[in-house]
Amino acid sequence: MKTVPLSQVPSQTLKTTLDDQNCTIKVYTLSTGLYMDLSVDGSPILTGALCLNKVRIVREAYLGFVGDLAFMDTQGSADPVYTGLGSRFVLLYLEPSDL
Questions:
Q1: pTM (predicted TM-score)
Q2: What is the pLDDT, as a whole number, of residue 61?
């Protein structure tokens, strides 16, 4: 398990390598919650995924992503909001051995 660093801003895009996958992760806020887009080597894996506490985001191996991503509330059981990203709400990369 690895923590993916995020900032406390309503919309952000970061590039990171997860298990030899060149990932672009976009996290953004809409009126209905926090959402994520994920691509690997420029190919979309998922778009518009709602981010919830302790709920895996990718879920399906056929999408072509090794491992999974999930948010965790370190102080309770709330769904993530941008004002707590990187502190209260952490984004975790779950390696295949974690699943």
A1: 0.94
A2: 87
- Interval 68-91 mean pLDDT: 98
Question: Whole-angstrom Cα distance, residue 63 to residue 94?
Answer: 15
Query: From CA 90, how far away is CA 99, in angstroms rounded?
Result: 18
Kindly report the CA angle at 59 between 56 and 64, in degrees rounded to 5? 130
The residue-averaged pLDDT of 67-80 equals 98
The share of the chain scoring above pLDDT 70, in percent, equals 100
| SS3 at position 84 | helix
- Name 12's Cβ contacts closer than 8 Å, sequence gap at least 6: 6, 26, 27, 28
Cα angle, residue 16 at apex, residues 98 and 42 outer, rounded to 5°? 105
Find the length of the chain.
99
80 Rama class: left (phi>0) / alpha (psi -120 to 50) / beta: beta
25: its two tokens = 């992760």
Sheet of strand 2-4, all strands in order from the earlier edge strand to the far edge: 2-4, 89-94, 68-73
